[in-house]
Specification:
Blueprint lengths: L1 E7 L1 H5 L3 H10 L3 E5 L6 H7 L9 H8 L5 E7 L2 H9 L12 H5 L8 E3 L3 H11 L2 H5 L2
Antiparallel strand pairs: 1-3, 1-4, 2-3
Bound molecules: adenosine-5'-triphosphate (ATP) and magnesium ion (MG).
Length: 139
């Protein structure tokens, strides 16, 4: 078993879709191993998305990610990073496959409902960003 870091983003939380997304992910075979709800401040969102700092959409992305509460969580499954990215679909919901989280629940390429780590190394970094050592020791 392995882990990935997922975030239910502000668009989905404010639209009241968090419960449906969680149920969908559990049905797909992911186990929730840690979960919290919080509102990111600007410095936190900029740090989380630091790799995108030079992209034209960076400021807008940071504004969006700080616009309301998010739900970061650690999900466990076999091959969790790859299987989760498959389950959420393409970044742009217009291009996401049928039955994926973004196809079902996302609004636009920016307001795309969920985040998923893109490698095991980034999953470790992102779990460390959101969860304390005490929480990680339970994993
Ligand atoms: P995530 O990292 O959130 O799981 P991703 O890996 O599919 O998504 P990235 O390329 O890492 O996509 O982009 C990070 C986030 O930035 C996207 O999820 C989306 O919210 C936003 N984003 C990406 N591309 C664009 C774009 N062209 N215009 C606006 N926002 C974008
Ligand atoms: Mg990404």
């Amino acid at each position: 078993m392995s882990y990935t870091l997922a975030i239910i983003k502000p668009d989905a939380v404010s639209a009241g879709r968090a419960g449906k997304i969680l149920a969908h992910l559990e049905e797909k075979g992911f186990t929730v191993r840690a979960l919290r709800m919080m509102r990111l401040n600007r410095a936190q969102a900029e740090a989380f998305y630091a790799v995108h700092r030079e992209r034209p959409f960076f400021d807008s992305l940071v504004s969006f990610m700080t616009s309301g509460p998010v739900i970061p969580m650690v999900l466990e499954s076999e091959d969790a990073v790859a299987r989760f990215r498959e389950a959420i679909g393409a970044t742009n919901p217009a291009e996401a496959a049928e039955g994926t989280v973004r196809k079902l629940f996302a609004e636009s390429i920016e307001r795309n409902a969920v985040h998923g780590s893109d490698s095991d190394e980034n999953a470790r970094r992102e779990v460390g960003f959101f969860f304390s050592e005490a929480e990680r020791l339970g994993l």
